[in-house]
Amino acid sequence: MTEPSAYDVIVIGAGPTGENVADRTRAAGLTTAIVEAELVGGECSYWACVPSKALLRPAAALAAARAVAGAREAAGGRLDAGAVLARRDRFVGDWHDDGQASWLESVGIDLVRGHGRLTGPRRVAVRTPDGGTRELTARHAVVVATGSRAVVPKLPGVAEARPWTSRDATSAKEVPGRLAVVGGGVVGAEMAAAWSALGSEVTLLMRGERPLPRMEPFAGELVAEGLAARGVNVRAGVSVSGAERPGGSGPVTVSLDDGGRLVADEILFATGRRPATDDLGLETVGLEPGSWLTVDDTLRVTGVEGGWLYCAGDTNHRALLTHQGKYQARIAGAVIAARARGERVDDAPWGAHVATADAAATTQVVFTEPEAAAVGLTAREAEEGGRRIRVVDYELGNVSGASLYADDYRGRARMVVDLDRGHLIGATFVGPGAGELLHAATIAVVGEVPVERLWHAVPAFPTVSEIWLRLLETYRG
């Protein structure tokens, strides 16, 4: 048995979150190793954010052209599905991670390939691809950044029907003739949009009243209308009770709780995520295997003696979004470096070493048609939190810049104002290109900019950003 390899920091998981933690600790002068069992770059790079947006963007570009007279006449025909899939493949590097692995080497981060598992305080054993084991020890910190996995419900016949998960939906090589999508969250809504645009006959099945249930209600309503206009059969208030695919091939028959049946060529379950911690050795440090890890605002895992274990990204269940995971990674890297040097930890709200934005200013864009973008609290969340608020809505289509952007532009904006503190605590925009409006709202929320000061932030005419002026005018009355 060789002696364990010692590092200042060991990161388990080389997705975007893990890469960013390792980058920050290495930049601070700490020796860092990162452990990865699959591809460097993780879920986002190969099976989530990047391939899904590559699938969605061509349809959005075509829709934008068709929304403007003059361009509309030149934008006939259908998307070239083969070209779209080939472009997707280029963006994911044909599922090879050579480039990202080379980047780790270039910044001095040691990549250890294999399955990493805690074996005790500050100790990680890596089962390598050749069947061997490599023992690692950390002087200061171990960071769990293993992400999450799709959940497939245990319903009769579903496992035998070989359903798609999000990974299959973003990496499929052919367009299914008929696709049943189960779940109206972000993955379900985006994949229904993507595959219907590529020519699939899509049925979206959801238990709730509308897609995107965690956003403002009007967001789900407008997205449902947009999906239906694209040809998606949107069915609300229905649940799947089982599935059949005899012999594991051919069409799949989906059974519904109302007694109905649906036949499709593929079925995608987009019904939630679970933490990728079931074989991580959590029991060796007093934690429950397969659990979400609870962290404090400096991303240190609670309940672990010595304060050496950190968790960033999906696995701590604070915000299952790549950009929020990368934000947490920057915080975790900075706080690990500060504690390693014996420096003071800035753990005040919005301090350098706390992930305040997870609760106050989480951002998200759903790339459906239309786009839906949000930051901070919804009106309902604010009211349930005991805030005294005012909600201001405005139709985006009534803004001059929006009417120039697209004929018959349809969308809506909402800002949620904390009346006691006098600043925004939430904003939602739904409409073509609405995602590009979000960062201004994020700055207003994070900066706690007084609404009266926003009056002096003059939007350029004629841009869609003129929505800010209209919201503020409505607020003033």
Descriptive report:
With 477 residues, the protein is an alpha/beta fold. The protein folds into 3 domains: 5-41 and 97-149 and 274-357, FAD/NAD(P)-binding domain, CATH 3.50.50.60; 159-271, FAD/NAD(P)-binding domain; 370-476, 2-Layer Sandwich (Enolase-like, domain 1), CATH 3.30.390. The chain is 31% helix and 24% strand. The chain has helices at 16-27, 42-47, 49-66, 81-91, 98-106, 166-171, 186-197, 217-229, 322-341, 357-360, 379-384, 400-405, 438-446, 451-454, 467-476, and strands at residues 5-12, 32-36, 110-113, 115-120, 123-127, 133-144, 148-150, 178-182, 201-205, 233-235, 240-244, 252-256, 261-264, 266-269, 273-275, 309-311, 363-366, 371-376, 389-395, 412-418, 423-431. Strands 1, 2, 3, 4, 5, 6 and 16 form a 7-stranded mixed β-sheet that branches. A 5-stranded antiparallel β-sheet has the order 17-18-21-20-19, sandwiched between helices. A 4-stranded parallel β-sheet has the order 10-9-8-14. A hairpin with a 2-residue loop joins strand 4 (115-120) and strand 5 (123-127). Helix 1 (16-27) runs parallel beside helix 9 (322-341). It is globular. 46% of the residues are buried. The mean pLDDT is 96.
